């Protein structure tokens, strides 16, 4: 275990409580009715038994309606796995995603303060026919990086204090983490293949949080750090795509310029620090989930694209 990972795992609740400090700014999770029946027409072959694995960019914290157990996983009935399951008419669907999840939580219980989420790979069976996986951001340190960069911005708004924090004579700490993140994702994909050897597997990348060069009130990072953080996001997705290719899985590219935190509210797929629509700060909103769901369907070669999904 790396020193960085050991530090993050040292306090079991920290991974949940750190992002939760940001998340509680918006709303409180609400209960929802039981899952709806599969769409008419029966399940398509790849989605006869669909299991979704992932972190908060999969679960959809604070996008209504929230549902499922444990409630602290903050799963939304409007997240992209639910949209994909409905579009494909999945006969059986399990959403195992959970806020704060890392690759380690695919094979071990995830501590959620007072409760735990079972290992996500436990949801897989030999009969599973479709798996989506969206993970890696928390292994990189997503919550830590976002909070640190926001805190440092006022010290040098026109400079790049976050880049300075993570880089030095020894290199770039964030970029140095990326190879290990890729290895961990590869390990998860091996576990998926062992449990569900006949399943089609789609690995979902992360949508753009920031524009390439600009800042805005919804993303109050220092001017020079926006390009730095954009580069880290892009390289993380490159690592995820390579892990998918090495495992023979489908990679789902969710990039979409003009839909980041600084986009107009109606074009935004990711909410900023002060959300305009129900969603966790710095996380996808319902429109973003619909767009990602469409990308998943297209990557799988499905003919039935979610009705009303935004297109580029």
Automatic annotation (TrEMBL):
SUPFAM superfamilies: SGNH hydrolase. CDD domains: SEST_like. Residues 52-291 form the SGNH hydrolase-type esterase domain. The keyword Signal applies. Residues 1-31 form the signal peptide. It comes from the Bacteria. Coiled coil: none annotated. GO terms for molecular function: hydrolase activity. Gene3D superfamilies: SGNH hydrolase. Its EC number is 3.1.-.-. Keywords: Hydrolase, Signal. The keyword Transmembrane does not apply. It holds the Pfam family Lipase_GDSL_2. This is SGNH/GDSL hydrolase family protein. It comes from Streptomonospora wellingtoniae.
């Amino acid at each position: 275990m790396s020193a960085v990972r050991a530090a993050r795992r040292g306090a079991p609740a920290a991974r949940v409580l750190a992002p939760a400090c940001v998340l509680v700014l918006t709303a409180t999770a609400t209960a929802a009715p039981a899952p709806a029946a599969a769409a008419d027409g029966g399940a398509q072959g790849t989605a006869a038994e669909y299991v979704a694995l992932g972190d908060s960019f999969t679960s959809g914290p604070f996008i209504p309606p929230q549902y499922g157990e444990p409630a602290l996983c903050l799963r939304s009935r409007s997240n992209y796995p639910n949209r994909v399951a409905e579009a494909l008419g999945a006969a059986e669907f399990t959403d195992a995603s959970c806020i704060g999840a890392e690759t380690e939580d695919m094979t071990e219980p995830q501590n959620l303060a007072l409760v735990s989420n079972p290992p996500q790979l436990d949801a897989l069976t030999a009969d599973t026919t479709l798996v989506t996986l969206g993970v890696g951001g928390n292994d990189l340190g997503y919550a830590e990086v976002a909070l640190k960069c926001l805190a440092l911005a006022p010290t040098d708004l026109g400079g790049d204090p976050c880049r300075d924090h993570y880089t030095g004579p020894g290199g770039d700490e964030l970029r140095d983490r990326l190879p290990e993140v890729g290895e961990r994702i590869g390990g998860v994909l091996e576990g998926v293949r062992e449990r569900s050897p006949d399943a089609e597997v789609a690995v979902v990348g992360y949508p753009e949080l920031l524009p390439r060069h600009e800042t805005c009130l919804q993303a109050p990072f220092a001017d020079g750090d926006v390009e730095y953080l954009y580069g880290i996001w892009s390289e993380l997705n490159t690592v995820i795509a390579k892990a998918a290719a090495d495992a023979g899985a489908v990679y789902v590219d969710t990039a979409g310029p003009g839909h980041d935190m600084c986009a107009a509210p109606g074009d935004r797929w990711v909410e900023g620090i002060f959300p305009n629509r129900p969603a966790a700060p710095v996380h996808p909103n319902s429109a973003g989930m619909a767009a990602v769901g469409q990308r998943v369907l297209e990557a799988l070669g499905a003919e039935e694209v979610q009705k009303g999904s935004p297109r580029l």
